[in-house]
Specification:
The chain is α+β, with helices and mostly antiparallel strands. The protein contains five helices and 19 strands. InterPro entries: Glyas_Bleomycin-R_OHBP_Dase (IPR029068), Glyas_Fos-R_dOase_dom (IPR004360), VOC_core (IPR037523).
Length: 283
């Protein structure tokens, strides 16, 4: 997990709109295995270690269902510390009976996919050692084949399920965008990320410090897909942690140079990619 700490920048948190907060809290506690850190009538933050919020859920008063064929969240990804914990999570998910959307081996990682009650995508994954990743110059090799589920389950011990381990972090986020070239310019020239893979003509992966990806971008909801309504279920914004105030100032200058918006709200700096995905620039 060296790619999610200083001196690297990384994604740490996502804030979602949900249609029914109590329904979502039951799901995220009982199925996913997170714990409530703070809660009010219409909002709650969720944690794995009891200290750090990985996810915040809000039920707007005028909330709409998640809009299909729009930009926004494809999935957020929770990174576990080892394969044994992935095995425990998979065993637990199978026991709950919650429908899984897939289980894949990407060469760099092994991952389980599912959706929450509002249709927000979730990935739960473990990285293979970075030394085992294959690079061709600046591009990493990633693929999608079926996960060895039996092998993953065999790694798990027999201890009872007590939720996701405290060392769980937000590993990456994957977004629907409307134009891949515009997105590439924003994330590379604006946020200063490196392209690590063009996945066909409809997906792109970018990162800091040669991680396989901190952010995935795709046009699978259609080129020119519209941004969803601000009050629809889905992503409000995600947090990008920058290693220093100097880097945040540099990123702000880069964003302004390419004409991307940067706003300050109560001391917090937000930007927005060309597809309408909002980002909190945090130090």
């Amino acid at each position: 997990m060296k790619f999610h700490q200083y001196p690297h920048a990384f994604v740490s948190h996502a804030r979602l709109n949900v249609q029914n907060l109590q329904r979502s809290l039951r799901f995220y506690q009982e199925v996913i295995g997170l714990r409530i850190l703070e809660q009010s009538n219409h909002e709650a933050s969720l944690t794995a270690d009891g200290k750090t919020a990985l996810l915040t859920l809000e039920q707007p008063a005028d909330v709409l269902p998640k809009q299909p064929r729009a930009t926004g969240l494809y999935h957020f990804a929770l990174l576990l510390p080892n394969r044994a914990e992935l095995g425990k999570a998979l065993r637990h998910l199978l026991h709950t009976g919650w429908p899984l959307q897939g289980a894949s081996d990407h060469h760099v990682s092994e991952a389980i996919y599912l959706g929450d009650p509002d249709g927000n995508g979730i990935e739960i994954y473990v990285d293979r050692p970075a030394e085992a990743w294959k690079w061709e110059g600046d591009h990493v090799f990633m693929t999608t084949v079926g996960m060895d589920a039996e092998g993953v389950l065999a790694e798990a011990d027999e201890s009872p399920w007590e939720g996701l381990p405290a060392s769980t972090i937000m590993g990456h986020i994957h977004l629907h965008v409307s134009d891949l070239q515009e997105a590439e310019q924003f994330y590379t020239k604006g946020l200063g990320m490196d392209v690590v893979l063009h996945y066909g003509s409809q997906a792109l992966f970018v990162s800091y410090g040669r991680y396989h990806h901190h952010i995935g971008l795709n046009t699978w909801n259609g080129v020119g897909a519209p941004a969803p309504a601000r009050n629809s279920a889905g992503l409000q914004w995600y947090t990008l942690v920058l290693p220093s105030e100097e880097m945040r100032k540099q990123v702000v200058r880069q964003l302004q140079a390419i004409g991307s918006p940067v706003t300050e709200e109560n001391g917090r700096f937000f930007t927005e990619d060309p597809a309408g995905n909002r980002i909190l620039l945090h130090v």
